[in-house]
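B., you asked whether I could sanity-check this one before it goes into the benchmark set. Here's the sequence:
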Amino acid sequence: MVFDRHDVGYEPKQHWITHADADKLMAAVKRPHRRAIVAFVLATGAELAGVVRARREDITGRMVHVRGTKNDHRDRWVPVVTPWQRKLLAVV
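And here's what the prediction gave me:
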């Protein structure tokens, strides 16, 4: 197998979802259970493993337990500090 040469000057782009992007995404997801998944990811930054392991009792008033397993930093408590996070977690 022959691989093409890679451009050594490549730099990955840094992009994050804005609130407007997130609102559009939430509006586009029609099925309630999928909206809940998207809302949980947006509010907490959870990866798939954290979503799969999530429990209702993990969401408290001010914190959300994200049950990640990839490394020691994936199992964590995420603070709920913005009205935007509270709005998303209400969907969950």
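One thing to flag: Residues 19-91 form one domain. Otherwise nothing jumped out at me.
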